[in-house]
Amino acid sequence: MNSRNARFSIGQVVKHRIFPFRGVIFDVDPEFANTDEWYEAIPADVRPRKDQPFYHLLAENSEAYYVAYVSEQNLRSDEAGGPVGHPQVNEIFDELEDGQYRPKQHIAH
To answer: Could you tell me which of 18, 12, 7 has the C-alpha nearest to residue 79?
Structure first.
């Protein structure tokens, strides 16, 4: 398999291609790294390939905040670029600038 670079970056605000949710990326797996049970639960006709980056999002929709795990093929940049209201955003990121959160700088003591 050819290694490939992730299209999206940590701190970027993205939205799902099909489902009505958006979020901020806080981690990236170079390829699928979840359980087979999770993968098999996705309907076969919309199941993404495993050989692509998968993103961990602090996600939100109109009803809830949650953590999502989404394939690159199912993400789009959120052009609106507004803040994500997930309560954990402030634990990981500093302010939002131009649709991108800046990760907090952790100082070792």
So the answer is: 12
